[in-house]
Design a protein that fits this description.
Number of domains: 4
Strand content: over 45%
CATH superfamily of the largest domain: Glycoside hydrolase, family 65, N-terminal domain
Radius of gyration: 34 Å
CATH topology of the largest domain: Beta-galactosidase, Chain A, domain 5
CATH class of the largest domain: Mainly Beta
Largest sheet: 16 strands, mixed
């Protein structure tokens, strides 16, 4: 890493940084306002990372006096994230950064519309334990797509990590989209260069711009490295790259590698059928490498000395060699809360100048010092250099360089979750990447059903793969795992988790959908029934020893209702064993069972209740289907214990009925064609082709007939009462009456 040190006045405190060429900054169009952006400044090798609030980007490198992307002096540049969105029958629309508004840019006009900025935040100190992080959220017009880009940088790395999360905020509409990340290269002072494809990247080839053909001999290179699987790429002239993106097609996986041209690079992922209220996260790196810059840079710099410090704090490099020292002004912020010093001394000539200043700290400590350089007659045009120093007592000044990890606290692992690969209706393969950051690390995948099955309560991460060790190195390690017994036609979320001495790192979340099963076979009398969801959310729990897929291992909530352990969502038509429990309190379903006549079936639609499904196999009531309302089946299920005294005794005297609450515990709504019975706590209603409701209340079981006739068996009276359409019957613990 290139560093220049100023002369000493008592002690050295700051590594001087070569600033961007201010001569280029002067060429920016005066009436174009710069795009608002978040700015990361570090000791390098990536000295500047600018992320626009429109998802544009720009990078500065310690080995280059210019920025890495066109325009060479602009913040941010013609680099960024774009999205092609297809919603319903609407034509595709391309959204992206507002490139034409960038000062000094190439006026790339490939967009239908620009992103609408929503929010941008910055955090971190640049260390492994507290990396710089910029989080930017934009909206793609009224398409229902929001994109959150999280850019992370650790001082000393020659790359920064980007996680792109695309969310469909629509309630009812799925959509297709393609996510692009593209850049117009400007390399080592040249607008033109050659292409290169790096096939050693973890998941897909990485396009790059370089100085020499085939990057031979090795020289500076700018790469876009996909970390999530399924990426396509393109390297070619900048015009070709932008035109292909404008066409909104998959990138062709080609490289115009041997042409010396003003080149660009791009990668792209296609996301099909992004469901309402769901999201997908894709990851990549922007890597700026220069073999002339020593590997393992990003040293931490410390100084021990008295509190009186001074000397050269920054250097200026200007391509205009006709400038003189008085053309510039310098302001030094010593990082201790005192007012910035605007009286720094600037000396030098012929485009090379030194900024000197001195300061007395009130107490030892760690301080971040920044120097702002500007033209004396145009303070808006300028650049900022910054670095950190530790000031402590001691008679002799010392400066040390310490490689990352050596003698420092352990750093958290870096983690990227790959895109899962569904394998049919019940299996999937997970993948991901992890950098242990020098500490022994174990990883595992955590996954669960989407929050739509819990009506917005969030993803239930109740499943995980066995932990696996991945070593303690500093290189990227691939990790994979296979899972089975998934719920068919269901949306899952997965994330990679890494744990080392520094703590637990949770990778970005991504999602996948299992395949549909073919229609179920005909039901078998007394053995199986065919269930199909109609609306809302329905859950099923098979009898002990049977499986319908990995069930919830914890109780969850859906629409405010508690769903017990062992239930799975009914996501398609499925054949279930007789004896299964069904929770339709938040939805409705169709039940098809075998009828008494060979080869015939009987059908009913049911909603709003929690019940057990049984069917007789023989006898006078052969094929009769009974739905028994479940009381107290699990914590949070309907229970008579909530009725107070009535839950403790069924022997209340008749005079006490009026005092008993009429509160409804649950109601099963039924519409059938065939022989069905619904059974509550105090009565059962048997029908053949009827519409009726059965409610368990604190004071008894109420049958309400909407159409047809229901034969109600009153358990306390040992009588059967025919209840006709428009009438109701309440069976109580010791007597009954019509409503």
């Amino acid at each position: 890493m290139r560093r220049t040190w100023g002369g000493l006045v008592g002690v050295v405190i700051v590594a001087s940084l070569v600033l961007g060429l201010l001569g280029f900054a002067r060429l920016a169009t005066a009436n174009v306002q710069p795009t608002p952006h978040a700015d990361i400044r570090s000791a390098g090798p990536l000295t500047a990372i600018a992320i626009g609030d429109d998802l544009s980007c720009q990078v500065g490198h310690t080995g280059d006096a210019w920025y890495e992307f066109v325009p060479a002096s602009g913040l941010p540049g013609d680099c960024g994230t774009l999205a092609s969105i297809e919603a319903g029958r609407s034509r595709k629309q391309l959204y992206g950064p507002d490139f034409p508004a960038h000062a000094g840019g190439t006026s790339v006009s490939v967009l239908d519309r620009s992103f609408t900025p929503i929010n941008q935040t910055t955090t971190g100190l640049g260390s492994s334990s507290s990396p710089y992080q910029v989080r930017t959220t934009v909206a793609a017009g009224d398409t229902g797509v929001q994109i959150t880009e999280t850019d992370t940088y650790v001082t000393g790395n020659d790359y920064y990590l980007t996680n792109l999360t695309a969310a469909n905020v629509h309630r009812h509409r799925s959509l297709n989209l393609a996510l692009y990340h593209a850049a117009d290269c400007f390399l080592r002072g040249f607008r033109s260069g050659y292409g290169v494809i790096d096939t050693s990247s973890p998941t897909a080839p990485a396009p790059g711009c370089t100085v020499n053909p085939r990057n031979s001999p090795p020289s500076a290179i700018e790469e876009l490295v996909p970390l999530s699987a399924g990426a396509h790429y393109l390297e070619g002239s900048a015009g070709t790259v932008w035109s292909d993106i404008a066409a909104q097609h998959d990138l062709p996986d080609t490289c115009d590698c041997l042409s010396d041209e003003g080149n660009g690079e791009a990668i792209e992922w296609e996301v099909r059928h992004l469901a309402p209220r769901h999201q997908v996260t894709l990851s990549m790196e922007t890597r700026i490498d220069d073999p002339s810059i020593a590997a393992g840079g990003g040293y931490s710099i410390s100084a021990s000395a008295s509190a009186l410090v001074g000397g050269t704090v920054a250097r200026i490099a200007d391509s205009d060699t006709g400038t003189v020292a008085s053309d510039y002004s310098a302001t030094v912020d010593w990082g201790d809360g005192t007012s910035p010093d605007q009286n720094a001394t600037i000396t030098g000539a012929n485009g090379s100048f030194a900024v000197s200043d001195h300061h007395t700290y009130a107490a030892p400590g760690s301080y971040r010092i920044s120097v702002r350089i500007a033209y004396a007659n145009n303070s808006a045009n300028g650049a900022v250099a910054s670095d950190s120093a530790t000031i402590g007592p001691g008679p002799a000044p010392t400066v040390t360089k310490q490689a990352p990890g050596a003698g420092q606290p352990p750093a958290p692992s870096q983690v990227v979750t790959g895109q899962p690969r569904p394998l049919g209706s019940t299996r999937a393969e997970f993948s991901g990447l992890v950098n242990p950051e020098g500490s022994p690390t174990t990883v595992y995948f955590e996954y669960g059903l989407d929050g739509s099955y819990t009506a917005g309560e969030g993803t239930v991460y109740d499943q995980s793969t066995p932990p696996q060790p991945v070593g303690s190195g500093y290189s990227i390690v691939s990790e994979s795992a296979s899972v089975s017994s998934l719920v068919p036609n269901a949306l899952y979320h997965v994330r990679l988790i890494a744990t080392n001495a520094a703590g637990t790192t949770v990778g970005p979340e991504t999602s996948f959908r299992t395949a549909k099963n073919p229609p179920p076979p005909p039901p078998v009398i007394g053995q199986t029934a065919d269930l199909a969801p109609i609306s809302g959310i329905v859950f099923v729990k098979p009898p002990k020893g049977k499986s319908l897929g990995r069930a919830f291992t914890v109780a969850v909530r859906s629409r405010g209702l508690v769903i017990g352990r062992g239930f799975v969502p009914l996501t398609e038509a499925r054949q279930v064993p007789i004896g299964s429990q069904v929770d339709a309190r938040g939805g409705s379903l169709k039940i098809v069972t075998a009828a008494h006549q060979r080869g015939k079936t009987q059908t009913g639609t049911f909603s709003s209740g929690l019940f057990k499904l049984t069917q007789l196999r023989r006898g006078s009531e052969k094929a009769l289907v009974t739905l028994t309302l479940l009381e107290g089946a699990f914590r949070g299920a309907p229970t008579y214990a909530s009725c107070g005294a009535h839950g403790a005794s069924d022997g209340l005297r008749p005079v006490a009925y009026a005092a008993v609450s009429k509160r409804v515990l649950q109601t099963l709504r039924s519409r059938v064609s065939g022989r069905f019975r619904t059974r509550g706590r105090y009565s059962a209603g048997t029908v053949r082709g009827t519409v009726w409701n059965t409610s368990d209340r604190c004071d008894g079981t109420l049958t309400v007939v909407v159409r047809g006739t229901v034969d109600v068996d009153d358990f306390a009276r040992h009588k059967t009462i025919a209840v006709h359409a428009g009438h109701r019957y309440l069976a109580t613990p010791s007597s009954g009456h019509r409503g």
